[in-house]
Amino acid sequence: MSKRAYNFNAGPAALPLEVLERAQAEFVDYQHTGMSIMEMSHRGAVYEAVHNEAQARLLALLGNPTGYKVLFIQGGASTQFAMIPMNFLKEGQTANYVMTGSWASKALKEAKLIGNTHVAASSEASNYMTLPKLQEIQMQDNAAYLHLTSNETIEGAQFKAFPDTGSVPLIGDMSSDILSRPFDLNQFGLVYAGAQKNLGPSGVTVVIVREDLVAESPKHLPTMLRYDTYVKNNSLYNTPPSFGIYMVNEVLKWIEERGGLEGVQQANRKKASLIYDAIDQSGGFYRGCVDVDSRSDMNITFRLASEELEKEFVKASEQEGFVGLKGHRSVGGLRASIYNAVPYESCEALVQFMEHFKRSRG
């Protein structure tokens, strides 16, 4: 095999090499069936075993909380932006949103198409380079739910704790940091995540939801936009993204092998500290974008003295085998996405490159 790229893409993102190699070995003939899992009926026992195992394994990693169901949906987190208010925002209620960056803004935009909304807290005044304090969150009395984005992929800000919302369901978009650390699922009514950052390939959206919230969805909604369709049919009402779900299950096995969420959190903090230290100890050559207390362990954003210098950095990095270090087009700058599957060795190589670039341009 040729040398693997230093993959810092924000999503689709790096997958564990061990998982890719397992999938490669099983790709043509899955468990001596004479078929790839991509070729099997989703109604067959072999595929259904994988499907059910992935659901059970995900809940086990979260401590097997009672009363929750794992759903596999398509359409990405962007479809969830609409499905959530469609299913939970009733007449006379208000959907509450914590505004923390680009993805929270997109979620709110969709909710406004459905019904009444309220910004319960916002860090827009800082250009989303900080996060609101939990005590600053103010919901309206008729709240249908409170929605927050646990980690803003573009800006690089991450909540370190979550609010206690009492009887109001807390809904979390965890697309870019799910399973990167332990968290108490019992705090949430629903969490969702596109798989393509920490869970597997693009094409699968994982929803973990309290079953009492989705026992019956509004009758006027189309079938595939109703959560109860997925609950009542075990996410098999129509053909699911079967290979993607198989890959999710393999990634979950890989997380188990690394000590579960505690193990991956320890590894992620070590990687993040390595790169943030390089930024902070550069004498101002590199400048972290986000306030220190709000920094993400998944998406590290930083700047150089000029856009021209940043373009030189990206070009030089690509020549050395680095991928994905250009910041999102909406904010510019530089970004290193260091999800679970990004090896520590890639982060070491990045720091060495940063030091070399600083010496040559500083």
UniProtKB/TrEMBL annotation:
It holds the Pfam family Aminotran_5. GO terms for molecular function: O-phospho-L-serine:2-oxoglutarate aminotransferase activity; pyridoxal phosphate binding. Pyridoxal 5'-phosphate binds at residues 77-78, 103, 153, 173, 196, 238-239. Pathway: Amino-acid biosynthesis; L-serine biosynthesis; L-serine from 3-phospho-D-glycerate: step 2/3. InterPro entries: Aminotrans_V_dom, Aminotrans_V_PyrdxlP_BS, Pser_aminoTfrase, PyrdxlP-dep_Trfase, PyrdxlP-dep_Trfase_major, PyrdxlP-dep_Trfase_small. Residues 6-349 form the Aminotransferase class V domain. One of its GO terms (cellular component) is cytoplasm. Its main location: cytoplasm. Gene3D superfamilies: Aspartate Aminotransferase, domain 1, Type I PLP-dependent aspartate aminotransferase-like (Major domain). It catalyses: O-phospho-L-serine + 2-oxoglutarate = 3-phosphooxypyruvate + L-glutamate; 4-(phosphooxy)-L-threonine + 2-oxoglutarate = (R)-3-hydroxy-2-oxo-4-phosphooxybutanoate + L-glutamate. L-glutamate binds at residue 43. CDD domains: PSAT_like. It is found in: Cytoplasm. The modification N6-(pyridoxal phosphate)lysine is found at residue 197. Its EC number is 2.6.1.52. The keyword NAD does not apply. Belongs to the class-V pyridoxal-phosphate-dependent aminotransferase family. SerC subfamily. Catalyzes the reversible conversion of 3-phosphohydroxypyruvate to phosphoserine and of 3-hydroxy-2-oxo-4-phosphonooxybutanoate to phosphohydroxythreonine. HAMAP family: SerC_aminotrans_5. This is Phosphoserine aminotransferase. It comes from Paenibacillus campinasensis.
